[in-house]
Structure formats: C-alpha cells, structure tokens
Amino acid sequence: MRYSLVDLAAVAPRGDKRAALDRAVASAEEAEKAGYHRIWYAEHHRTTGYASQDPAPLIALAAARTSRVRVGSGAVLLNHHSPFTVAERFLMLEAMAPGRVDLGLGRSSSGPLVDCALRRDRQAEPVDDFADQVREITGYYRHDLDSAHPFHPIDLTEGIGGTPDVWVLGSSGRTAALAGRLGVGYTFGSHINAPLTEAALDHYRRTFVPSARDPRGPRAMIALVITAADDEDLAHRLTWPARALRAAGRIRPIPTLAEAESELGAAEKARPSTLTGGVVPDQISGTAESLRQQLEPFVRRIGVGEIVVQDMLTDHELRSRSRELVAAALASVDVAAEFE
C-alpha cells in the first residue's frame, strides 16, 4: 500500500524554529528515500511547538530538493484565506514542480484572538463558507465556475501545464459528502474521529461524482498518528510527549520524553497505543512487524490503499528511525484498495 507523511515542523525542546524548518525540509529527502508517496506540511498558528505556519514555502523548498515524492499541504486552513489567493499560490507551486503538488484543504480554529487577527476584515462576523471556498478553487482549476459566478471570467491556469491535485481533509460525514460532490480526493482524520472512519469513507464513496475535467474515481486515505521503534516499549513511550502536550495545552514546547515521563500519571502512560479489535487509539505504536499486524486487517476492512502518517517527535534520530520503520511496516501491508 501507499504511505505518506504529514510534517508539523516540530520544534525540539530548547530549540528554535529555524532548525525545525530545516529539519522539516530535510524530511522530504528522507521521505523520498524511504518510499513515501507524498509529504505534506501543516498550517498551525500561534504554536510554540510547531514551526509550520504556512505550508507553501516548505513545499517549494522540499520540491527543489526532491524529484519523485509528491509535496503538498495537510492542510491549508481555508477559513483563514481567500480561495483566489490559495488557488494562485498553489498554481505557482505546480509550475515549479509539475505533476507533484497536492493542495490539501481543511479548516480549523486557532482560538478567537488569532482567528480574528488572521482575517482581513476584523469587523465582519466569521462565516462558515468552507464548501463555497473549495468549490471556487476547483472552479478556477477546472474552468467550470457557473456562468453567473462573479469570478467566472478569471483564468488563473493560463501558461501552466497542469493543476494541483485537490484534497479535502476532514473528520466528519459533511466533509466526506463535500469531497464526493466535488469529485476531489478525501483524507479522513482517523486519529481525530476513529469511530466514524468507515461511515465517512462509505459516504464519500456513495456521494462521489467525477468531474468532466477529472474523470478519476474516488481516491481516499486515512490519517493516523504512528510512532515506531525497534522494541515495543520504546515505541509506546514515544507516544508520551504528544499526550503530555495535549494535557497541558499547545501553547508550550513539545516536551522531551523525560519531561513527559515526569508529567504524566501512571494511567495516562499506560493508556493503550495498539490497534486491537478494530478500535483505533489516538496514537498507534509498535515495531515494524507489530504495526503491520495491527494495520493490515484494519485497512483491508475499510478498503483504503494509503495512510498518511503524523508524529510529534523532536529527537532527530528517534524520529528518523520511527519513520523508517513505519515505511517498512506499511510497505509490507497487502491490501486490495477500493479507492484509487
């Protein structure tokens, strides 16, 4: 099966964001060598532990240092941006890395204060128009905005041989239906809402309508948080920093493994990190072999042929080894995917 990566540009304890960004770009080269299909960069605002506030510069740098792996956003938070700006910016990236750019679209709050600061018009009440925004972007790319749409005459693709591959990221049936109606790719956040995974993918499949300009069928993947090591105990312990970060709030550095060990109680440390009986924990851990055993029956049941992996590891050696082992595990998973 295919396996991909989302990089948050995690900042090492007592480190700086410049170093984190350097490592995030280097991750693209590592991902390409390890056989990852794509690497996406996230958009997180006002976070101490993540340096990836804007995916676009990281995508451009990663594309320049690789030749095969797809590069993209996981995701552009469209509620903070103009659809025109996003469409144009990613067409520039497509021109720089033809046939390799993914535009992953999502929405999220950074808190009332930051959400307001990100808006151009701070006086207007926020509006949930995500579906209209995604539709506008696909309309620019496919030249199929309704003739009554005010931006119908605009052609952004002139002189560019292709367009980015558009994906909607979400964790609900509503985003699944949106991706299906628009005929774009769908990434379901199983690490956020695991019980809804199968229903959301089924909803996406049933509502999918291919575009006249993009006749491909449904294409879906799931997002999971996975850590790996050469022994089960270390792999499980690598889930602790993320648990400690979640417990204390994200406006703080990502704790070290030692800090997490001192902060977490026994029950939180012992909380399962293995996928058993179809129950998906918020983080999955294991060795390459145990991860294959955990994930193969799960992906066979839900019919996806690609997993996009996230981690919150800041130790360079542990992170590189984890991603190497995750790649080995997922490369060995045998699945007949229902999605492209």
TrEMBL record:
Domain of life: Bacteria
Alphabetized PANTHER family for the sequence: LUCIFERASE-LIKE MONOOXYGENASE
SUPFAM superfamilies found in the cross-reference section: Bacterial luciferase-like
Name of the protein in its database record: LLM class flavin-dependent oxidoreductase
InterPro entries reported for this sequence: Bact_Lucif_Oxidored (IPR050766), CmoO-like (IPR019949), Luciferase-like_dom (IPR011251), Luciferase-like_sf (IPR036661)
Span of domain Luciferase-like: 1-301
Family indicated by similarity: To bacterial alkanal monooxygenase alpha and beta chains.
